[in-house]
Every structure is written in C-alpha cells, then in structure tokens.
Amino acid sequence: MSDLDKVLARIDADLDQSLERLFAFIRLKSISTDPAFAKDCAACADWFVEHVKDLGFTAEARATGGHPAVVAKSEEGSGPRILFYGHYDVQPVDPLELWQSPPFEPGIGEIGGRKVIRGRGACDDKGQVMTFIEACRAYKAVTGKLPLPMTLLVEGEEESGSKNLFKFVADNAAELKADIAMVCDTGMWDPETPAITSSLRGMVYEEVKVIAADRDLHSGMFGGAAQNPIHVLARIIAALHDENGRVTIPNFYDGVIEPSAEQKADWQGLGLTAENFLGQVGLSVPSGEKDRMVIEQIQSRPTCDANGIWGGYIGEGSKTVIASEASAKISFRLVGNQNPIAIRDAFQAFVRARLPADCKVEFISSKASPAVNLPADSAVLAKARAALTEEWGRKAVTIGSGGSIPIVGDFKKVLGLDSLLVGFGLDDDRVHSPNEKYDLKSFHKGIRSWARILAALSEKAA
Fold first, then answer.
1. 3-state helix, strand, coil in the chain (%, to 5)
2. Cα–Cα dist 270/193, whole Å
3. Closest Cα to residue 450, out of 267, 266, 196?
4. Is the pLDDT of residue 307 over 60?
5. pLDDT at 462
C-alpha cells in the first residue's frame, strides 16, 4: 500500500473518533457577534490551539482587537507551503424554539435517508475546518509527519465581519507568507459532485441622490412644469440595461474574462436550467444577458442591480407632492479584471450625463473591491481537481461564486497569494439558520479529499 492508501484507511478506521473531536469543537459556544459569549470564543480558540499542538504544530491564540485568532505552524514535509484559513466562530442560534435539538449538543441524525451531523457550526465552519485537520491527523499517525509545510490561520470574527482580520494579516504578513492559500468555507455543486470555487465576484456599492426643487412641491400647482426627481432617477436606472440584459455603461465590460470552451462545456453538463434555478423562488425567465446560460449569468458575468429606491411621500393616504429629491442604492458585482474604481467613475459619469439642467446629484460611495480569480492554468488547481475527481468518482467542476469572501481578497492584496477554495457544504445545510447540519458523507469524504489534495501537492508526489 502507498502512504496515501494507508492514510485513507486510517481516516476510515478513525471516523468515530474524528466525530467525537468535532462534537467537542461544536459544544463550545463561540458566538462572535454577542459580547456575552466573548469568554466562550476565547475558550474555543484555546481549545483549538491545544488540539493542533497534539499534531506537532507550534500554535497560539493571538490578540486581534476583538476575538483571538489562532496561528499554528509546522515545518514538516516538503513542497509548497500552504496557508489554511478557516473560522471557529458561529452565528447566533435565535430563534431557539425552532431547533429540533439543542444547537450546542451535537449528534448524528437523519434527513431523507442521509446521516447528518447536527449542531451550530456543524457546517459553517467547524465541520469544514475539521475535515482538513483530521486529514493532517491521519497523515501524522501513518507517516509520523505532516505532508507539507503549513500555516493555519483560524479566526474568531468571520461571522461578525472579520473587522480585525485585515490589520492582523497585514501586521503579520512575514509570518503568514506561503505559496498558496487554502480555504474550506464553500460547498459542493450537489451531494455527489465536488467543486472548486475558482473565482469570487468583486463589488462596487453606490448610493445616488437626485435633487431638483428646494422643497417638495404641490403637484397641482407645479406638475407639468417642475422636474420630478423620481422620474429622472427612474429613467436613469431603466437606462442601465438594454433590451438584451447588457449593462449600458460605457466600457463596463473591460476586463471581463471569457470562460474557456472546456469550462462552458462542464457547466452545460451540470444541467442548471432557468426552471430549476429560478423556479425555487417563484420565477422562470432569466433577466440577464440573453445570449448567456443561467450559470454564466450568476457566476462569470458582471451585474448591475438597484437594491433600493425611495423618494416623496410613502405614508398612508394621499399627499400630492412632487418630491424635491429621490435616492437609490446601486450595486455592481464584478468579475475577471474589471477595475472597481473605473466602474464607479463610469457609473457616476453615466448618471451625470442624463441629468436635466434643473437637477443635481450627490453620491455616497462605499464598497469597492476587485474580483478574485485562481488562474485557469494553475498547477495547484489541476492537481486539486484531479484529487477530488478520484475521491468522488465524478469530475470536479470549477465554479464561480456570486458572493464575496473578503479574506481571499486580503490574501491576494497583502500576501500576494492565490486561494484554492474547496468545501463540502450543501445547499440544504441550513447555514445561519436553526437546525444547521453537515452531511456525514461530506465530513468523511471531505477528510479523504483533503488527504488526496495534500498528497498531490507534496514534493514526493511531484
């Protein structure tokens, strides 16, 4: 038997003990958003420190200005140094009465014939973190050492915005230096199909206010003569897209990367239709670019959305006024190499170009972050994809995420690291909701998957 075969056999034999270690982790009430649980968060960090010390890591809980972050290092093994990121904090459990079992008393249950791990944090992110740690444990038991040099960064504030993490990473950049970052806080395509999230959309968020008269006006006296800023703003928002669903801001698509023919073929094979994607929310007709598959619209194409619009009188009854101002919140999800500052400037110019002479505009700018992409020709991506395919018996797909994971951008910006995002969560894991769960299969095969990925990346395998 090869070392990998022995490691995989050890994982299988040790599954019950791996579950007990995960249960001990879940029992710690590490709710980061509620100050009442600050001591629990500190205790959870300390528990994790001692847990990884048993595997030969040097580890400590570090102050961050909020809840502590755990940093652990090992120089064992040979090959690229990896920086593994996860978080030990969890969401609040309210409303408690909706839980079918106590959230911090984990156990095994069954849903639709599948065995599942119950408890807050079972998936997000304690179960996911422990898939990686248990793979390391099996390697240590079988070979006497870890397969690669590695650094662990496990924070305690992800569920409250990671507000202290960027500074922590910047202040400790030299210590956190690595060749590749690995993040286990994502999911599978479906219960049988493993996935690597190879891109995350960026974000531009703007608030725009159109101002006309110096006060609200009587519509009977001024209607037909005075500019109505609600009308003006509505026309501007309507003009942001053409009849084919494309964004009309000049140069908006600069930097967008076209998926390869292989990736498009993989996506087409996943069978995501408008009916099965939009049907779950009571819709059926995609509103994005008409020449794109639904999966492209949500993963690899940029978007522009009005998230809110208001102005004038909105109380009960009638008040016939022409409002003096109207406002909207607009967000852009970016992909590829789109420049968020250029998008912001182009949007503001687009609005100003459509203002009547009697109107002025104000902008409030907030988020502006670029998309993050793992290069399609990455050797790490290819090896990880092959390892996942071998474990699951189904070709691993590379997907994009419509959301953002800020730390991935921070790793790129501060440490110059690309990130490999591999996770084993499922759509029905009820993350952030009562009755959170993690499929036992996800946990078990997740451990085996990480063992295969670590083996593929080790210098011996190369």
1. 35, 25, 40
2. 9
3. 196
4. yes
5. 52
